[in-house]
Amino acid sequence: MAKEVMLHAVGIDKQFGPTHAVDHVSLDFNKGEIHALIGENGSGKSTFTNMLTGIISIGEGTFELDGERIEPKNQVDANHHGAAVIVQEQGTLDGLTVAENMFLGDEDQFISGGIKNTGAMIKKAQELLDSYGLDYIKAVDPIENYNFEDRKLVEIVKSTWFGPKVLVVDETTTALSQNGRAELFTVMNKVREDNRTVIFISHDMAEVLAMSDTISILRDGEFIKTVSAKDVTEDELKTLMVGRQMSEHYYREDYEGSMAGDVAISMKDVSVPNQLEDVSLDLHKGEILGIGGLSECGMHEVGKALFGASFERSGEVTLADGTSVKDINTAINHSIAYASKDRDNESLLTADTIQDNITLPSLRKMGLPLSKRRQKQFANKYAKEMSVKMVNTDQFVSALSGGNKQKVVLARWLGAESDILLLDSPTRGIDIKVKADIYALLDEMRKQGKAILVISEEIMELIGMCDRILVMKDHKINGELERSRELTEQDLIALMV
Ligand SMILES: Nc1ncnc2c1ncn2[C@@H]1O[C@H](COP(=O)(O)OP(=O)(O)OP(=O)(O)O)[C@@H](O)[C@H]1O
């Protein structure tokens, strides 16, 4: 039976100054399907869907949703027309409760006689959270009480409870752990079963093939092709995205024992309330140490604790020379790099330029007086090394695509020539081509004797890149696995649950 079209996009176009982000794209999305939109970083995926969901205005072209032409003025307006989005970065606002975030712009339903019935709003929000199995999240709490993943789960409820006709899931999976992903996939499948539509943006080709019915490819803002998921392989998709054949190599290929040297940094009996309980570990020079686990296991706090960025930390973090790392300043002064999972809030100065972001921890090294020309050369060198897709380094970081922001974070620490790298979700939102480059870079740094910690939700990344993997459960280390050809996803999962 021929499928009915849910969303008919004709000649959709957007330019940002010299950047032609979306170039006259015409595309149909059917009812009852999960339709993946794939392409390299900066290929225009988010710009296309942001026009549909009211985050930015439409440059040119028309969207017809279920027979109605829509031109959303903002996200709330888009919701009212049946288009919703779960964004790549933080989609909830500080300073509001969970309930207020869920009904932001839609509070009218709780107002009668000019008075807002807050109790009714909290009750409805809690009922919705409970119905998604998220009863541990309290509608009445300030949203700041919750971590990045929980806030994403709130956003999933916020974006779907009213049954949107089209739901955009923009590179959300990599912000979630295994159980968070399962929750998201349940929601996506439900949208499909209800004969509505999901537009699914992801850089994980295995996930794209497993989840979607149809796949459309964008390259440099242009529409390339739509294929049926059952007729295409991962390699064919990669070739379509990149425009040339990709090499087979991806992860490290050596399995002959680790080259690990002396301990570079260690943590002993470190506890952080509700996050870590008596965690001890050694990170050696010349090794990549992986940390994995399910959400709430505390793994993201390990990076923060080592970087001196935890609140209320007890226990010791010590460098090889005996220095105790108690705060961020000490960490930076001793050449420690840290990339947070919450990129926009904790890793980047989004209101500053690419140059400022890249040079920040290296300014002292450049010496006084600070030469503008040197700073520019420095930023250019490392932005180029990470293939940041940009107009130039004077561009604001806020104007970059998600994956390109992540490249700026990595360019900064590459430039700082840090000896210890603490990388939380280092390839989050990064396309396959750059991912391969980052893996090669990590391997090179390891060979140079740098100590590298990789905290990751990507089990294959941990298996493929790490010399050792510590698996966490309930805020403690639950087991250690050595690098081996025989290691499987199941070995890690068994220690996570
Ligand atoms: N507000 C903006 N101002 C200037 N340029 C922008 C802006 N938003 C996006 N761009 C540019 O438009 C292009 C497309 O970006 P977009 O975010 O749509 O890519 P994407 O395919 O979603 O990438 P990613 O996979 O990294 O999320 C990029 O070159 C980006 O730098």
UniProtKB/TrEMBL annotation:
Domain ABC transporter: 7-245, 258-497
The keyword Transport is annotated on this UniProt entry: yes
Keyword Nucleotide-binding tagged: yes
Record keywords: ATP-binding, Nucleotide-binding, Repeat, Transport
Any Pfam family the entry gives: ABC_tran
Database matches in SMART domains: AAA
Signal peptide coordinates: none
Alphabetized GO MF terms: ATP binding; ATP hydrolysis activity
InterPro entries documented for this protein: AAA+_ATPase, ABC_carbohydrate_import_ATPase, ABC_transporter-like_ATP-bd, ABC_transporter-like_CS, P-loop_NTPase
Protein name: Monosaccharide ABC transporter ATP-binding protein, CUT2 family
Species this chain originates from: Parafannyhessea umbonata
